[in-house]
Amino acid sequence: MEVIILDNKIDIGLAIAKEIIKDIKNNPKLNLGLATGSSPLPLYKSLIELSKLENISFKDITTFNLDEYCGLSNDNKESYHYFMNENLFKYLDFSKDSHYFPSIDNVNNYDEIINNHGGIDIQILGIGANGHIAFNEPNTPISSVTHITNLANKTILDNSRFFSNIDEVPTQAITMGLSTILKAKKIYLIATGKNKAEAISIMLKGKYIKECPASALNLKKDNVYIYLDKDAASLISK
Ligand code: GLP
What residues line ligand 1, using a CB cutoff of 6 Å? Predict the structure, then answer.
């Protein structure tokens, strides 16, 4: 696991976008694992800008999203389908049908779909203030594959900022499991802000602690890159 501390989320987004573009130049048929939330937004912005500047095509790229709420239609403004379209997909030349999301219909074979495509080459992750990655809440088994999960109260509270009312936040979601995520060939986790500092300090203790799902990344030997701003890094013990 490599920890990179940069000044702000814009610099983090740009740094990771450059790495992704480098990889796409080597393999234009990459499988990209994508995350939602505010953390990856600067990355998506940089990816769009750099791709236009350097004439990078996404027509042979396949994307696999980490998670989706249960009970929201794909055109609901708070759905992750809508988020991805508005913040990334519509700006690039992705082919039709190149985007996969876990859903009630494919929950039992989402991992198989990913494997049949050759696995995820690059996985982008954010982290919840309670240490969740995707929607793998504290105490999710390390062997978990894509599944339906109940959201933790803390997650419902944190994510209610995107909804007009906390009662509108879905209480369930479909998420890649921890073992699904760990199979990605390369992982970039982005965390910014003081509210992530505690989860980051636990994750960086170097071992897997089941109460902090992100710490499962310690079980992956290579190719895990943790990008932090100074606030998110503020509680890391020396
Ligand atoms: C949601 C998503 C996670 C994301 C988390 C953090 O719960 N399911 O994938 O990492 O939010 O969001 P933010 O980046 O907005 O803090």
Answer: 35-39, 66-67, 126-128, 134-135, 155, 159
Cα 126 to ligand 1 centre (Å): 5
User: Which two structure tokens, joined as six digits, stand for 58?
Assistant: 């996404």
Say if CB 170 and CB 148 are below 8 A apart: no
Tokens of 209: 């602690």
Which residues are known to be catalytic? 67, 130, 132, 137
Strands of the sheet with 147-150, listed across from one edge: 67-69, 172-175, 147-150
DSSP state of 224: E
DSSP 8-state symbol, 202: H
Sheet order of strands, 224-228 included? 2-5, 224-228, 186-191, 122-125, 31-34, 62-65, 99-100
Ligand 1 atom closest to 67 (CA): 8
Spacing of C-alpha 28 from chain mean position: 21
| CA 129 to ligand 1 centroid distance, Å | 9
Give the number of the atom of ligand 1 that is nearest the alpha carbon of residue 175: 8
In order along its 238 residues, the chain shows pLDDT tens digits of 999 999 999 999 999 999 999 999 999 999 999 999 999 999 999 999 999 999 999 999 999 999 999 999 999 999 999 999 999 999 999 999 999 999 999 999 999 999 999 999 999 999 999 999 999 999 999 999 999 999 999 999 999 999 999 999 999 999 999 999 999 999 999 999 999 999 999 999 999 999 999 999 999 989 999 999 999 999 997 6
CA of 39 to the centre of ligand 1 (A): 7
Q: How far is CA 143 from the centre of its chain?
A: 18
